[in-house]
């Protein structure tokens, strides 16, 4: 069966960057940076990307491109059918699983883009934003309708195929995302008092950087680069043999970090402009859907056309970021089903879409009608989120680094990295060292930290 590749290097990089740039860049990174030492945190974060993130990303690229097949198949081929093949299957499962709750938030961004564009935040006072959000997520119908729209969109892109679906959409959406980010940054940093926000974000404070902060930076680097969920491995299986793997990985990491830092330039100048402090605004969903709509209204003029534009652009940015990430997750599962079970792409995509639609709706309803369905004190959405983030991702990441460092054939590794001798490989030893020793230990520590083991010991 002939298999499609990405048509261009830039298309390949933009698609992979689309996977990496997601909600995490906007709703976690800026706050983590501001609160954990500003530029000092950024330096630690970049170090984590270099030492931990890039070696694993390069390994995923290399395994995918070598095998030219879906993640489960790629690990089976790269491991010669040994039990290490389960690492690939775990990646597929993780990606599929994450997608079920990721689409719920993707759907929320659509609703908020719609509310912004229709000026629904005019004259809303700070407390009402909480009610608006709660009323929305608890409603059994509205989030579900947006969820269906979001999923149909993904399905449409996926069924168009690798080049005319994924690559083409990345080539349109990623530049759009970049332009929106830039425009919002300009708007926000030109507000009066913006410099205090910039100072909060960037002023280095090494005294805040302790072992906890380093673990946090590692966890964020890992999630932000979309590692261990099969996305990068699957996309790399569509790279052609001339694509320089290490260079592409560096490009993706730079785009991802650049957008994350710019998101900080969007958020903090506005927050400081209206006299709020970073402690008031929260993180994650409460930051994004409760604090920020209020911040934008107040900073850019309640109900003014500028506030409407800024707010709409911001949620469109989140929508595009979430969409390109969700597409990459869907492709992991679609490629798996279609190649491992010899189904047509359309049929495979339909199966994946149906499963995520059902599980996604359950996750979505867990804020409303299904809120009493809980396990370990978590609702369905939180179970999906925590189980994947705290268990599946770290275990997958650790296994990938051990596999790539200790098990994978060294000649194969070197050949792929050098594009079979046509590129000079400079950091081979460092890469291997990181994969063998640094990454497994570091990820193991993040894992234990997230499970609360260190708190317990203290
Ligand atoms: N890297 C994405 C982000 O920063 C997260 C993600 C992408 C999660 C793809 C799953 C799949 O938000």
Q: Strand-residue fraction?
A: under 5%
Percent of residues in helical segments? over 70%
From the alpha carbons, calculate the radius of gyration and give it in angstroms.
21 Å
Low-confidence stretches are none
Bound molecules: phenylalanine
Question: In this structure, how is the largest beta sheet organized?
Answer: 2 strands, antiparallel
Mean pLDDT: 95
Strand order of the largest sheet: 1-2
Helix count, per DSSP? 21
Quickly give the structural class: mainly alpha
Number of strands: 2
Helix/strand order:
HHHHHHHHHHHHHHHHHEEHHHH
Distance between the termini: 57 Å
Shape descriptor reads: globular
How would you characterize this protein structure?
The protein is mostly helical and 458 residues long. Helices cover 77% and strands 1% of the residues. The protein has a two-stranded antiparallel ribbon. The mean pLDDT is 95. Bound molecules: phenylalanine. Phenylalanine binds next to helix 1, helix 2, helix 6, helix 11 and helix 16. The site of phenylalanine has 16 residues, from helix 1, helix 2, helix 6, helix 11 and helix 16.
